[in-house]
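Reminder to self: keep the SMILES exactly as supplied, no canonicalising. Ligand is thiamine diphosphate.
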Amino acid sequence: MARKNMIEAIRDALDVMLGADDNVVVFGEDVGYFGGVFRATEGLQKKYGKSRVFDAPISELGIIGAAVGMGAYGLRPVPEIQFADYILPAYDQIASEAARLRYRSSGEFFAPITIRTPCGGGIFGGQTHSQSPEALFTHVAGLKVVMPSNPYDAKGLLIASIEDDDPVIFFEPKRLYNGPFDGHHERPVTPWSAHPASEVPDGHYTVPLGKASIAREGEAVTVLAYGTMVHVALVAAQETGIDAEVVDLRSLLPLDEETIEASVKKTGRCVVVHEATRTSGFAGELIAVVQERCLYHLEAPIERVTGWDTPYPHAQEWDYFPGPGRVGAALHKVMEA
Amino acid sequence: MDPHRQLSLHVPEPSSRPGDQPDFSYLKLLPAGGARRPEQDCPPQDMHDLAFDLVRVLDDEHAAVGPWAMELDPSLLLRGLRAMEKTRIFDERMLMAQRQGKTSIYVQCRGEEAIACGQRLALGPHDMCFPTYRQQGLLIAQDFPLVDMICQIYSNARDKLGGRSLPFFYSERDHGFFSISGNLGTQFMQAVGWAMASAIKGDNRIASGWIGDGSTAESDFHAALVYASVYKPPVVMNVVNNQWAISSFQGIAGGQAANFACRGHGFNIPSLRVDGNDFLAVHAASKWAIDRARANLGPTLIEWVTYRAAAHSTSDDPGKYRPADEYAAWPLGDPIERLKQHLIALGQWSESRHQAMVEELGAEVKAAAKQAESFGTLGKGPAPSASEMFNHVYKEMPPHLRRQRQQGGV
Ligand SMILES: Cc1ncc(C[n+]2csc(CCOP(=O)(O)OP(=O)(O)O)c2C)c(N)n1
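Structure tokens returned for the bound complex:
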């Protein structure tokens, strides 16, 4: 057991899987010799050799297309897309190919690939280093979509994703790489070492896909969140003094509807938060699920706190980012309803 | 503004339109035997001429000539001839079946039979092809059961793909035939990835990627060339230039500015331009590229010059965009006729034996179609069960799909 930040936990998961399974290969832009622009693959090429961990040309469709072909051969590729903002050139290979290969071949071919990609804002990344495109993938049948919020889950979920025989989009909130960020940008960053979830076991373990976790138990209101917004929700609960239950979804697809239902039936109130833009965002799906399963238990309209329906701005970072103030206001609003 | 300095957009036009005389003068056709055959390990930069030349073996007198004429066992040529003829008869039967409402759509490969059949017979049993919808010859050349193909085309109760896929989108892993996708170009990049995997594992299998002239304009084509040039995996990259992409002539894909074979030069990938209607040339060029890949010498790009003799699909009417008799004027002739005449010239074949073979294959295809029909057709069924719709989305069915299946009452 060692204390690890999220980058170290991710690198550890890759190390474990490269060691455990000869069919695992890791590649992407700047992933090989240099070890990745976020250092997630540092040292892996040296340890496992250039045919297991290597640099790729700057072609996202090439990276994912190659991974699909490798998967069809029998490898277990873990490609990296440098920023989630740049995943769109690969969208055809992901949505039309990786996601449907099993379906259209009756399971004869499939794409056991895990696409790692840093996502999310809060780092002054502007329009093209801040996006949260998860809803573009939760709408695609055949994909699994995962987003961890802490080092322990990151390692366990990544190992589970790599071992999964279906294609997984593994979103890594880059604002969380070095510490749990609660939206209080005016305060100094707290490192992961102060957080219990930085205790990351050595070796192999998994966190199951499709299972949410309760980040904070509460009785008054359920907050559905994932990634960075889990930490924002936690601090908002603390600051408002509202006894919120914070559900960290971890997997968006498949979604743990049972955990959501149990929590909302207990609290009778629900706030959904995400960084992504609002219209047709994943919150829309979550609200529909809560409405379908818990309508007669609801004591207030469901609130959503999301990014605005604009591209992600630069100078206006903290007016865009749904911080603890906005989440707190939503908590008050549903409690007063 | 000076009218002489006004800009104008260049929109390429084919050499002839409906009502015009067919005109193939744009094709640079060199005589059979003229193209040289480089050594197996020839550096790509030393064979640039071959992207502008045309590898041809069969001459106008039906003799095999020049450096690409290999010592081939006549039995292989007879196999090739049989595969091509069977492919054509199969296509004709399925075209008729579509007209009779037994399936929704069909695509023929008329005129292009030599390319898939010729390359398949040069590949090893464990190599993997990444075909488009126009390489049915890859299956037929290895005597794949026609009944299985037709059951898939009919989306019937015996359709191995459970009715989920469009007709002729076969998937036959054990026969080196990758699952066909409707999204053009995607499989070209995947073929390169598969070949990279084979290299990563130190295997000796190779990949064969396929793309049409029109689809070379997709980004996947460029990505595939980049990856093939960077990692030098064992892949044969086939561009089937049949002059047409639905109604667009190959100039709209950039073929007027430069041929497709020379696309390889910027990537230092060895490139060949080959007569696609010459079975012997197809087999020889394929073998050259396959041996090269297997010797770890990397990828080869091959432009197969051919002509799409039939309509694009059963939903298409070529009379609206090209001369009706254009194929009759196609200077490279018909691949079946050319191989047939060669075998006759060799004293290995005769018109009457050919006629007997056509009848035999016709009966075989008809019997297969009848048998497949006994398992159902698209219109009349029996159809695959509706619950098949929910299978194979994921390896294991997640809870939300279980609920939807229940909700759907299947
Ligand atoms: C990405 C994509 N765009 C458009 C289409 C529609 N489409 C189907 S076949 C075709 C023409 C392809 O022409 P070509 O690559 O020359 O192959 P050919 O049909 O001549 O064998 C088009 C445009 C498609 N299937 N996929």
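Points to follow up:
Strands of chain B lie at 128-130, 207-212, 235-241, 244-245, 248-249, 271-275, 300-305.
The domain at 44-379 of chain B is CATH 3.40.50.970 (Rossmann fold).
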